Predict the 3D structure of the following.
Amino acid sequence: MAKKQFAVIGMGRFGSSIAKELTGMGYEVLAIDSDEDRIQELSEAVTHAVVADSTDEEAMRALGIRNFDVAVVAIGTDIQASILSTLILKDLGVATIVAKAQTELHGKVLSKIGADQVIHPERDMGLRVAHHLVSPNILDYIELSEDYSIVDLKAPAQMVGRSLKQLDVRAKYRCNVMAIKTGSNMNIAPYADDIIREGDTLVIVGKNSDLSQLEQAYSEG
Ligand code: ATP
């Protein structure tokens, strides 16, 4: 299978970080920005960098944007440009569009007009930091929906040496341990008898209110 090709529009902090990381991972990346200086700065760090206005349909067509597997719209401040660009990419037939939203309403509009994935970087990072502050064992927090999330929990001392059956988070907190990470090894089908070791990370899915109880119960760890 051919490697995915990515177009990233808007080389602010968010967009340029995505573009550089993807390039570093060996993917072909087309970075687009209307600001020549930004493109100049990035030209060495990504596969292709071009100056173009993503609200100009002809310019996007000329770049062959529809041939990219994924286009990321990383324009933030100019909400109108973000919406218009997403609409144009959709019309031109880009397979997958990921768009960055500045506000909840902006995000709703982006979904409505066809963005396949809407990202709220500041909101989501704020959420993660808040959970990490309350419970330093929470390494990551991913919202699945309004009510459900996945957390990466660094095994607290109280868990070490005990089996999943003994911990019984399913009965106690109505949460499910989906996987146990031990170093670079990932056990994605843990058994009830599997023992938690020091340094392990548990990947747990559950309702936000239940996860919250579990986090608090293990916050001292
Ligand atoms: P970040 O928080 O990621 O730094 P931001 O949310 O502040 O970014 P902006 O700075 O508004 O986002 O926009 C990011 C980039 O998008 C800028 O470099 C800007 O030049 C570019 N940009 C804005 N409008 C367009 C457009 N119509 N076409 C191409 N690039 C655009």
Remarks:
- The two ends are 45 Å apart (CA to CA).
- The chain has a mean pLDDT of 93.
- The first strand starts at residue 5 and ends at 9.
- The pocket of adenosine-5'-triphosphate is lined by residues 9-15, 32-35, 38, 53-55, 74-78, 81 (CB under 6 Å).
